[in-house]
Amino acid sequence: EISCVTGVQTCALPIWEGIRSSLHPLLFSLPLFQLKNLGMDSQTMVVLAPKIFQGIITGLCEYSLVRGVTKVEGGRVGYWFFLLTIFNWHSLYTCSRTLINTLEYSLTCLALSFYIQDSKDKTPSYVYLPIIALCFMLRPTSALVWAPLVLLHLYKMFRSGEVWRMFVWLAASVGVVCVCVLVESCFYGRLTVPPINFFLINVYKNLGVNYGTHPWHWYLTNALPTMLGPLLIPLIQGFHRSSLTLILPIFVNVVFLSALQHKEMRFLASSFPFFLLIISKQINQYSSQCQRMLKVFFLVSNVLVCGYLSLVHQRGVVDAALWIGQKGSDIARVEGQPGVLFLMPCHSTPLYSHIHYNMYTRFLGCEPNLSGQPGYTEEAERFYSDPATWLRHIHDDPDMVVLFDTLEPEIGDYLSKFWLCESFKHTHFPEGKVGNRVNVYCRKWS
Asked: How far, in Å, are 47, 191, 243, 251 from residue 362 at the CA level?
């Protein structure tokens, strides 16, 4: 446990709940460790290296799946699957991001490439089993996609009397799980199985609601139309003629996730390859003229959307973090170790991965009520309920304050000790606590 100051009271936060796998950050520590050894760990390289590393992983896994689809479904379906995968705005925007869901998507593509080929081969190898075992240990919700497929495969093997072929790969999968548990236990300093803890915290205790709630139909009425756009039409058209191999993983995943109150678009990452495969097979049924028109529309619209989302939309928080890292060294030469206070909703900005400078940072906490305290209110909610009072009771004396422009009218007195040293465009669509610009205030030194 660690002590922290949250507004007017001191609290103890249990940081070792063990719901997240240490294997994910361990993966990105490899390129960063090499950069440090080579003396190349500049701010730019520390920001780019993990993204490039994840992009390479995603690209290789997608390439494996494209080859598998082409082999099983034929060249035309493989061609469309390639286009929809590589030039889809959602893939272009997310597949280099260092989120656990991106790695889950990559491993799903890799495992699915073996699965669909194994289902066609006379002597299947079951290589996909250790891959999904690793995927499960990293992101337990991947079981929603793969449990139906493994059960289908087992059923086919029982009917053919060749279940024994699966035993070796099942043993290898158990070995993967054991190695993962060993690594996690070494990291946490005690026996730790993250999938179990993940289930207890996010499903049994349902503490995910701390980060927002949505209606049960949100994935159907909001997430899928946003992810797929016009491609939702061929998905609906092709759904009824698709095999259980494609339908069951989507159905189980969407139904279960819809039952949980907290929902995010990234939670559908493991279903995305199945969506695109159904769509590719359906588009292949269209006329040649319709396919040509759809291809031009798809490529142009997705490149434009991806360009806007990647280069313009909500980039202010990233620009601010990079600027703070560059400015920190200038402030430190005068005032010692600089301090930054982030007065923004939880998880708004990247932190040390982009700042890459040794400085004190203070940001609003939004830890869930893990200890079951009655009347618990997270720090961010307490701050936004009365910002001026919250600021009067903190003991921080920061050199810089970072906030969205929408907050400025409420804390004008506090900001009188600072001057606006930089401002970054954030979004054309401000909403709620998220403003149009991210402003950085620097202290007025006499």
From this structure: 21, 32, 52, 42
Determine if residue 357 is left, alpha or beta; phi over 0 gives left, psi from -120 to 50 gives alpha, anything else beta.
beta
Q: Which residues contact 254 (CB under 8 A, 6 or more apart)?
A: 219, 220, 268, 271
Query: Taking the CB of residue 115, how many other CB atoms lie within 10 A of it?
Result: 25
One-letter amino acid of 254: V
A 10 A CB-CB count for 21 gives 24
* Residue 19 to residue 370: CA distance in whole angstroms: 12
- Residue 419 host element (H or E): strand 418-425
CB 267 within 8 A of CB 220: no
pLDDT in tens, 236-275: 999 988 999 999 999 999 999 999 998 999 999 999 999 9
* Residue whose structure tokens are 């401000």: 430
The candidate with the shortest Cα–Cα distance to 272, out of 102, 21, 24, is: 102
Measured CA distances, 367 to 101, 207, 378, 395 (Å): 21, 10, 6, 20
Element (H, E) at 360: strand 360-363
Contact 43, 354 (CB under 8 A): yes
CA 128 to chain centre: 23
Q: Dig out the tokens for 148 from the structure.
A: 């139906």
Measured CA to CA, the distance from residue 18 to residue 183 in angstroms comes to 12
The half-sphere exposure of 155 on its side-chain side, counting CA atoms within 13 A, is 8
**Is the Cα torsion angle 282, 253, 119, 132 positive or negative in sign?**
positive
How many Cβ atoms from other residues are within 10 Å of residue 310's Cβ? 13
pLDDT in tens, 35-73: 999 999 999 999 999 999 999 999 999 999 999 999 999
